[in-house]
């Protein structure tokens, strides 16, 4: 499937389908969805991905991504 902006793929982010450009990395997805990635943890297909590996982690059709925000409270 191609569109004028190039090939697209569908991933599931926090339980909801989302279309992204082919070649999208986890880092790009987190940046797109969060204004403050400093307090974020991410997992792809139930495996936590260390922050240092986000730029090298490409997303594939059907991947399941969980983006979690750290919350402090008492």
UniProtKB/TrEMBL annotation:
Annotated NCBIfam families: thiS
Transmembrane domains' residue ranges: none
Protein name: Thiamine biosynthesis protein ThiS
The organism of origin for this protein: Streptomyces tsukubensis
SUPFAM superfamilies reported in the protein's UniProt record: MoaD/ThiS
InterPro entries in the record: Beta-grasp_dom_sf, Mopterin_synth/thiamin_S_b, Thi_S, ThiS/MoaD-like
